[in-house]
C-alpha cells in the first residue's frame, strides 16, 4: 500500500504544487480585496454589512474548492484511464476495492490539504479584520463549498472511470445534483443544521466509485 | 504433471450485445509451454486476450488462469502473472528508478539483476522519464519490469507493435532466453507472425466462426503444406477446398496455391477427383507466416 | 449439522462485495438527488400561485373580514358570515387600515361607537408589530457581535460607533473595529455598570436592532445567566443599565425579544417564550402584556399585531390556517376567528405530484434562514406512482433477461422509492450476477 502512495505522489506532485501555488495566489488576492474594502469604507459599516446585511466578503472563495476538486480528479484519474493504464494497477497483487479506495483516499487527502489551506487562508483573512465570531461564521459558511469540492473530486472519479458514455453522463448529472445542493443559499451559516446530511450524501459518492471501477475492469479497459 | 494446465478455457462464450464473438471456445495451455495466439483481425483475438488478462468478464463458460477465474484473481495469483499490454503501457510520469521502486514493492521475488541487465543496455540514466522514451526503449523497461517480477506465467499482447526490427529482436531474444531458462509459461500474440517461429512451442489459430486449431508448432510446420499449380495448369474452374484441400487461393500471377495437411499423393488424388491434372503441382517451402496466411486465408 | 461443501463456500467467499456496494451507493445517491430535484423541477414547471389570506377585524361590522386568494391573482373579499363585497366596500369595512383611501373618498372623519376619528387620530393610534417565524433568533444564523449606538446622538440621524461589543463569559467586551482589538476602557466601563446592577454573566440572550435606519435607539435587552432582563443603552458615551422587573423565571423562558423602537415609544418590543406565549413589552415600566395567541406556533407561523384606537387585533397563521383575535384597547379578547387558507391541496397539480412522488426529500430553508432536511411522505396516493414504476422496472428486467439476483435489488429499490428509484434503475447499470461465472464447474 505505501507503494501506491509513492506512485500517486509521483503523479500528483506537479499538480499539487500548482494547486498550492494557485491557493497562495488566491489567498493574497482575498486578503488584498478585504483590505481594500476596509480602506475605502468605514469599518463599522463593513461590520454592519457583514453581520446584518449578510454580505460575504469571502464570496470569491465559493467555487474555488469545486475547481480544485475537478482539477485534482482529472490530474489523478485521467492518466489512469488514458489507454486503459489503470490496468497496470488493477493487476497489482491487491484487490480491486482496496486499490480503488486507496487511490480515492490519497486523492481526498491531497484535496483535504488544499481545502484546509483554503479554510486557513479564509480564517486568517477574516480574522485580521473581524473578531472571532465572524471567523467562525465564515468557516461554517465555507464548509458546504468545501463539500462541493469533495463532491466534484469524487464525481470526477465516477465519471472518468466509467467506460460507457451514457452512464458517464448520468454520473455527471448526479455529481451536478450534489454540487448544486452545496450551493443552495447565499446566507451565511445557512448550512449549520444541514451539513451532516450533506456530508453523508457526499460520502456516498466514495463507495459508489467502486461500480465504475468494476465496470472498467470487467470490460471497459481498452 | 497431471494438473499442469496454466490456462484452461472451457465452453467460453462471449457476446457484445447481439454479436457473438466466441461460442464455446476451449483449449489448455500447459505449464512451461510457450504459446502463440494467432488469428487475423476480427476473429476475437483481442477479446480473448482481454478475458485471459482479466479485463473482460466472459458472458459464460470458464477461463481459468493458474487455477482461478481470470477476471477474479486473488492477489497471490496476480503476483504470479506478468502482463505486457499492447502498446507497452507504463506509467509515463515515472523515471526508470521510480518504476523499479514502485513495482519491486509488490513482488517479494523481485529480480533486480534481471531488471538492470535489461535496462543497462538502454544506456539511459536511471532518472530518465518514461514519458521521454521511444517506444522501443519503453518496451525494454516494460519487459524488464515483468521479467523482474519473476512470474510463472507471462501474457504478452502484441509486444511487436511500434517496435523497429532492432528492438523487436532484442525484446524477443530476451524473452526466449528468459522463458526457456526459467521454464515459464508464456502466451503471446503478435502481428509479426514470423517472430513466433523462434519463440513458440505451440500455436493456437483462431479463425472466423470460432474455429480453433491448437497444435505444436513443429507438428503444424511438419504437416501443413503448400502446393503450387502454375498458371498454365490451372483449370477453368478452381478446385474446391474441402476435406483434403484446406484452402485453395488464386495467386496474383494466375497460378493457384493449395494448402493441405496431406502429402503429395493424397493431394494429387483429391485434385484428380475434381478433374484437375496435378502433374504440374509442386510443393513449396513455407515460413510460419506463409503457413499462417495459408491456414487462415488472406481475406 | 450439515457439512458445507467446499464447492459451496468457495464462490461465496470470492464473489466481490465491492461491486454490489458500488451499485447500491450509486443508486441510493441518484435516488436521493432525484427525490430532491424532481419535485422541485415539477413545482418549477407546474406550480400554481398561492397568496396568504388577509384577515382583519372590522370595527364597522364588528365582525372579521378577509381577503382570500382564489387563484390566478383573483381575490374574494368577504366577512366571516359569508357576505362578499367589492374591493372598495371591503376597504371601507376596515377604515383604520385604509384611512388614506377613506380620506380620498371623503369618508373621514368617521364616527364609530360614539367616537370620531379623523386621519390624524387614526394615524397616531396606528401601530403594527410583527414577528415572523424566520426572525426568531434561534431560527437564523447570527454573529454575536453588536454595535451599541449612541442613543443621544445630538443630531438627526443615528450613526454607528467605531466599536462593537460581544458578551463573553465574564464581561461585556468592546472591540475597536478599525484595529479589531479589545477596547479595555470601554469594556471595563460597561462591565462594571452591568455588575453594579447585579448582572450575572454569561448572558443568555442579547436582543437589539443593530441598524441606523430607525428613528431612535433603545439599545439592547440582555437576559443574564439567571434570567434577569437588563436594558442597556449608551447615552452620551456612558452606560445606562436598567435592571427590569421582569421575573427571572419568565426571563429564563424567553426565547426571543424583538426590540421595535416604534415612534410612539409606548412599546419597547415583543417577547416570545419557549412555551409559545407572546407578550408586548411596555416601555414605561417594562410591564409584559400577554397577547391572546392560542394555537400560535412560532416556528411555523408569522404573527402580527395591528393596533388601532378600537380593536387591536393579533393575527397569526401559516400557509394552512389563519387565526385572528380582536381585543379591547386594553388587550382583552373580544372576538376570535380562524379560517383555512386555500392552498394547493386538492388542486390537480398537487394530486398528480402526490401520486407521482411517494415522498419528497428537501433541503430547503422552508421560509427561514437555515437550510434543513425534511422528508415528507405523500400517503397512500404515492402507491400509484410506485405501482407504475414497478411495472416499468419489471418490464425492463424482462427485456434485459436480467437474472433474478441482479433484478431483485433494483426492484426492491423501486418498490421503496417509486419514480426516484426508477430513474436510478434507468441510469445506473444494474448489479451483475458474477457468481455464475465464478462458480466452479459442476462435477460430472
Automatic annotation (TrEMBL), chain A:
TM stretches of this protein: 12-32, 90-112, 169-188, 194-213
This protein's UniProt keywords: Membrane, Transmembrane, Transmembrane helix
Superkingdom of the source species: Bacteria
Protein name: Uncharacterized protein
Source organism of this protein record: Roseospira visakhapatnamensis
TrEMBL record, chain B:
A GO MF label: ATP hydrolysis activity
Keyword flag Iron-sulfur: no
Pfam families: ABC_tran
Annotated family: Belongs to the ABC transporter superfamily.
The keyword Transport appears for this protein: yes
Keywords: ATP-binding, Nucleotide-binding, Transport
Domain ABC transporter stretches: 7-233
Entry-linked InterPro entries: AAA+_ATPase, ABC_transporter-like_ATP-bd, P-loop_NTPase
Species of the source: Roseospira visakhapatnamensis
UniProt protein name: ABC-2 type transport system ATP-binding protein
Signal peptide: none
Domain of life: Bacteria
Automatic annotation (TrEMBL), chain C:
Keyword Membrane: yes
Record field: transmembrane: 379-397, 409-430
Record key words, sorted: Membrane, Transmembrane, Transmembrane helix
Listed Pfam families: DUF4857 (PF16149)
Source organism superkingdom: Bacteria
Name of the protein in its database record: DUF4857 domain-containing protein
Species of origin: Roseospira visakhapatnamensis
Amino acid at each position: 500500500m505505501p507503494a501506491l502512495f509513492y506512485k500517486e505522489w509521483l503523479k500528483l506532485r506537479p499538480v499539487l504544487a500548482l494547486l498550492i501555488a494557485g491557493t497562495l495566489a488566491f489567498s493574497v488576492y482575498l486578503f488584498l480585496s478585504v483590505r481594500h474594502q476596509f480602506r475605502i469604507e468605514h469599518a463599522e459599516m463593513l461590520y454592519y454589512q457583514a453581520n446584518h446585511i449578510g454580505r460575504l466578503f469571502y464570496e470569491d472563495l465559493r467555487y474555488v474548492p469545486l475547481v480544485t476538486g475537478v482539477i485534482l480528479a482529472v490530474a489523478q484519474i485521467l492518466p489512469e484511464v488514458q489507454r486503459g493504464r489503470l490496468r497496470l494497477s488493477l493487476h497489482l497483487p491487491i484487490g480491486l476495492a482496496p486499490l480503488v479506495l486507496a487511490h480515492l483516499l490519497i486523492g481526498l487527502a491531497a484535496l483535504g490539504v488544499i481545502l484546509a489551506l483554503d479554510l486557513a487562508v479564509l480564517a486568517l483573512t477574516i480574522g485580521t479584520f473581524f473578531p472571532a465570531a465572524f471567523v467562525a461564521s465564515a468557516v461554517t459558511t465555507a464548509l458546504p463549498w468545501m463539500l462541493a469540492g469533495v463532491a466534484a473530486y469524487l464525481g470526477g472519479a465516477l465519471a472518468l472511470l466509467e467506460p460507457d458514455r451514457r452512464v458517464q453522463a448520468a454520473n455527471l448529472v448526479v455529481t451536478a445534483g450534489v454540487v448544486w445542493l452545496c450551493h443552495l443559499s447565499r446566507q451565511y451559516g445557512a448550512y449549520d443544521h444541514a451539513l451532516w446530511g450533506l456530508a453523508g450524501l457526499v460520502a456516498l459518492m466514495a463507495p459508489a466509485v467502486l461500480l465504475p471501477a468494476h465496470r472498467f475492469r470487467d470490460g471497459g479497459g481498452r | 504433471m497431471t494438473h499442469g494446465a496454466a490456462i484452461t478455457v472451457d465452453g467460453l462464450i462471449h457476446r457484445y450485445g447481439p454479436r457473438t464473438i466466441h461460442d464455446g471456445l476451449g483449449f489448455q495451455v500447459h505449464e512451461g509451454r510457450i504459446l502463440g495466439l494467432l488469428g487475423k483481425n476480427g476473429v476475437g483475438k483481442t477479446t480473448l486476450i482481454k478475458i485471459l488478462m482479466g479485463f473482460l468478464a466472459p458472458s459464460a463458460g470458464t477461463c481459468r488462469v493458474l487455477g482461478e477465474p481470470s477476471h477474479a484473481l486473488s492477489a497471490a495469483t496476480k503476483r504470479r502473472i506478468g502482463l505486457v499490454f499492447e502498446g507497452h503501457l507504463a506509467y509515463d510520469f515515472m523515471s526508470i528508478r521510480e518504476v523499479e521502486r514502485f513495482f519491486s514493492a509488490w513482488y517479494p521475488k523481485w529480480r533486480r539483476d534481471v531488471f538492470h541487465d535489461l535496462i543497462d543496455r538502454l544506456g539511459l540514466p536511471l532518472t530518465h522519464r518514461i514519458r521521454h522514451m521511444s517506444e522501443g526503449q519503453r518496451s525494454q523497461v516494460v519487459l524488464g519490469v515483468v521479467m523482474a517480477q519473476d512470474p510463472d506465467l507471462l501474457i504478452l499482447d502484441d509486444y511487436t507493435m511500434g517496435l523497429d526490427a532492432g528492438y523487436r529482436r532484442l525484446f524477443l531474444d530476451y524473452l526466449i532466453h528468459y522463458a526457456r531458462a526459467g521454464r515459464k509459461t508464456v502466451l503471446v500474440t503478435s502481428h509479426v507472425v514470423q517472430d513466433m517461429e523462434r519463440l513458440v512451442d505451440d500455436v493456437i489459430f483462431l479463425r472466423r466462426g470460432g474455429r480453433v486449431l491448437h497444435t505444436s508448432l513443429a507438428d503444424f510446420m511438419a504437416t501443413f503444406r503448400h502446393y503450387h499449380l502454375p498458371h498454365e495448369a490451372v483449370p477453368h474452374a478452381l478446385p474446391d477446398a474441402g476435406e483434403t484441400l484446406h484452402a485453395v487461393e488464386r495467386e496474383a500471377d494466375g497460378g493457384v496455391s493449395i494448402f493441405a495437411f496431406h502429402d503429395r499423393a493424397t493431394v494429387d488424388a483429391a485434385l484428380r477427383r475434381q478433374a484437375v491434372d496435378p502433374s504440374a503441382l509442386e510443393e513449396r517451402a513455407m515460413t510460419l507466416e506463409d503457413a499462417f496466411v495459408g491456414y487462415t486465408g488472406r481475406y | 449439522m450439515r457439512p458445507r461443501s467446499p464447492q459451496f463456500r468457495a464462490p461465496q467467499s470470492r464473489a466481490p462485495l465491492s461491486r454490489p456496494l458500488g451499485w447500491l451507493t450509486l443508486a441510493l445517491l441518484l435516488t436521493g438527488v432525484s427525490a430532491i430535484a424532481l419535485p422541485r423541477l415539477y413545482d418549477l414547471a407546474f406550480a400554481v400561485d398561492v397568496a396568504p389570506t388577509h384577515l382583519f377585524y372590522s370595527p364597522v361590522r364588528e365582525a372579521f373580514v378577509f381577503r382570500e386568494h382564489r387563484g390566478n391573482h383573483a381575490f374574494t373579499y368577504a366577512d366571516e358570515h359569508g357576505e362578499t363585497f367589492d374591493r372598495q366596500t371591503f376597504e371601507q369595512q376596515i377604515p383604520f387600515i385604509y384611512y388614506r383611501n377613506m380620506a380620498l373618498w371623503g369618508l373621514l372623519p368617521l364616527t364609530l361607537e360614539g367616537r370620531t376619528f379623523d386621519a390624524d387620530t387614526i394615524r397616531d393610534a396606528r401601530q403594527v408589530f410583527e414577528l415572523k417565524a424566520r426572525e426568531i433568533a434561534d431560527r437564523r444564523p447570527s454573529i454575536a457581535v453588536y454595535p451599541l449606538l449612541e442613543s443621544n446622538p445630538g443630531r438627526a440621524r443615528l450613526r454607528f460607533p467605531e466599536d462593537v461589543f460581544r458578551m463573553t463569559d465574564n464581561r461585556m467586551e468592546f472591540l475597536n473595529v478599525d484595529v479589531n482589538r479589545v477596547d479595555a476602557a470601554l469594556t471595563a466601563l460597561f462591565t462594571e455598570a452591568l455588575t453594579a446592577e447585579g448582572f450575572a454573566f454569561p448572558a443568555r440572550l442579547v436582543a437589539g436592532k443593530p441598524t441606523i435606519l430607525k428613528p431612535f435607539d433603545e439599545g439592547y435587552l440582555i437576559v443574564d445567566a439567571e434570567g434577569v432582563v437588563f436594558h442597556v443603552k449608551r447615552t452620551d458615551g456612558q452606560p445606562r443599565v436598567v435592571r427590569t422587573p421582569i421575573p427571572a423565571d419568565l426571563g429564563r423562558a424567553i426565547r426571543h425579544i424583538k426590540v421595535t423602537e416604534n415612534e410612539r415609544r409606548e412599546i419597547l418590543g415583543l417577547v416570545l417564550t419557549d412555551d409559545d406565549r407572546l407578550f408586548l413589552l411596555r416601555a414605561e415600566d417594562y410591564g409584559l402584556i400577554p397577547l391572546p395567541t392560542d394555537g400560535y406556533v412560532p416556528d411555523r407561523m408569522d404573527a402580527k399585531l395591528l393596533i388601532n384606537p378600537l380593536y387591536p387585533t393579533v393575527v397569526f397563521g401559516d400557509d394552512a390556517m389563519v387565526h385572528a383575535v380582536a381585543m379591547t384597547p386594553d388587550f382583552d379578547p373580544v372576538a376570535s376567528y380562524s379560517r383555512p387558507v386555500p392552498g394547493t391541496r386538492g388542486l390537480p397539480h398537487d394530486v398528480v405530484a402526490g401520486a407521482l412522488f411517494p415522498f419528497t426529500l428537501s433541503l430547503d430553508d422552508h421560509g427561514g434562514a437555515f437550510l434543513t432536511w425534511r422528508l415528507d411522505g405523500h400517503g397512500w396516493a404515492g402507491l400509484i406512482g410506485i405501482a407504475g414504476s414497478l411495472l416499468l422496472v419489471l418490464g425492463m428486467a424482462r427485456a434485459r433477461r436480467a437474472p433474478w439476483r441482479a433484478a431483485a435489488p433494483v426492484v426492491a429499490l423501486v418498490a421503496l422509492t417509486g419514480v426516484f428509484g426508477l430513474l436510478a434503475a434507468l441510469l445506473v447499470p444494474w448489479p451483475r450476477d458474477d457468481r455464475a461465472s465464478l462458480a466452479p464447474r459442476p462435477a460430472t
